[in-house]
Specification:
The chain is an alpha/beta fold. The protein contains nine helices and seven strands, in the order βαββαβαβαβαααβαα. The protein has a seven-stranded parallel β-sheet with strand order 3-2-1-4-5-6-7, sandwiched between helices. α5 runs antiparallel to α6. It is globular, with a radius of gyration of 19 Å. The model has no long low-confidence stretch (mean pLDDT 89).
């Protein structure tokens, strides 16, 4: 089972959206792809010639251990060429309504689970002097009203990325943050439906009225999952990959953000979300 000489890549959260697009794009580009899913049927799109689904819940230590043991049956001395940490969820609601258990769930998937999976696979990445790509978000650069829990997880993921990259310099492992803007995936509709069922009171306010209108179609105004997948492919093929890259139609806005005075930004976002200045 270790005779396949193609570089091995593991993609978490590969059942749909960006993760699925990354898995298929890398398969077509000559990589050996392991895509993690939480249900076996979600990995059936992966062709046996080059693709292997792995059952994995990033929040469960036992599940991570089982997945790594399965992966080891396929990996040879070359180790794991790349880990793409893509699995994530989005919890959106006003902070005054967000229950502690929901906030913990957000961090468990988007941050703690990422750290756990990465920690488990570091020995295999050291074998290949490989690469780690964190699928972060422009929400890790800009926190807007109603997406606080999600933004917290992505801001923290940026800190994890930077500190991990600096720790692994001596090992020759390169760590990159990919920050997609709004992308046409199911995450927006899922987040909207979850919030509507969990916090119906919020939808009676003007801010969530706007969220209710925009959320189901927000991704359609951005790029496709394949755009993000192509960016990941370029990073894996680059001799010297970027430390972080924004993938968005309006990406230059996010690079310009550090120079915008915070009070200006506060007023702009308040005007957009609430329709008036604070």
């Amino acid at each position: 089972m270790t005779s396949d000489k193609r570089p091995a890549v593991l993609v978490t959260g590969a059942s749909s959206g960006i993760g699925k697009a990354i898995a298929l794009t890398l398969l077509q580009s000559g990589f050996r792809v392991f895509g993690t899913v939480r249900r076996a049927e979600d990995g059936r799109y992966l062709p046996p010639a080059g693709g292997t689904p792995l059952l994995l819940d990033v929040t469960q230590a036992a599940s991570i251990s089982r997945a790594v043991k399965t992966l080891d049956r396929f990996l040879g001395k070359a180790g794991l060429f790349a880990l793409i940490n893509n699995a994530g969820i989005s919890i959106c609601a006003p902070w005054e309504l967000v229950a502690s258990e929901d906030f913990r769930a957000q961090l468990e998937v988007n941050l703690v689970g990422v750290a756990a999976v990465t920690r488990a696979l570091l020995p295999r990445l050291r074998q290949s002097r490989g690469r780690i790509i964190m699928i972060s978000s422009t929400s890790g650069r800009l926190a807007v009203p109603l997406t606080g829990p999600y933004s917290c997880s992505k801001f923290a993921l940026e800190a994890l990325t930077d500190s991990l990259r600096r720790e692994l310099l001596r090992d020759g492992i390169q760590v990159t943050s990919v920050q997609p803007g709004p992308t046409d995936t199911p995450i927006f509709a899922k987040s909207h439906n979850w919030a509507k069922n969990k916090y119906p009171r919020a939808f009676r306010g003007p801010a969530f009225g706007l969220f209710s209108t925009l959320a189901p179609t927000l991704g359609q105004q951005g790029q496709t999952p394949e755009d993000v997948a192509r960016a990941v492919k370029r990073i894996l093929l680059a001799r010297r990959p970027p430390l972080r890259t924004v993938v968005a139609r309006n990406r230059w806005f996010f690079y310009f953000l550090p120079w915008v005075p915070t009070r200006w930004l506060d007023r702009i976002l308040s005007k957009v979300i609430y329709g008036s200045k604070p």
